[in-house]
Structures are given as structure tokens and as C-alpha cells.
Amino acid sequence: MVALMEDFTGTSKEEIERTIPYVDPNGGIAPDSIDTQIAWYKSQNLIESDVKAADIIDTRYAILIPNP
User: Fold this and answer.
1) What pLDDT shows up at residue 67?
2) N or C: which end of the chain has fewer CB within 10 A?
3) What domain count does the chain have?
4) Is residue 2 part of a domain?
5) Contact between 33 and 39 (Cβ < 8 Å)
6) From the centroid of its chain, how far is CA 30?
């Protein structure tokens, strides 16, 4: 997953690993965590939409993982 992020962003593996708290080794996504992040962005007036994780995660490709 980090290699994909490296290719997509042009950022070094070391920089990515230093700055992200956790990446699921299988590339899984935790919808509850994304909803928490969306709520924070809304609380900071950085987004106005009522989007939910379920609206933006394509489950045909995403591996969903439970909230820790």
C-alpha cells in the first residue's frame, strides 16, 4: 500500500511512513474512521457536505475493516 502511495504522490516511502499513523497491510479501509474524519473536517468548517464514508467508498474494490 505504501508503494502505491509513493507512486501516486511522488513522495518517498520514508516520508510516507514517517507521516502516516497507520496503513492496513492489505489496503483495507475503516468506514467508521473515515466518518470520524469527515465529522472533524465539518467541525472545522472545512467541508459543508453531509457526505458519509459509504457514499465515497467503492466496495467493489475496497476491503472494509471494522473500527478498532
Assistant:
1) 67
2) C
3) 1
4) no
5) no
6) 8
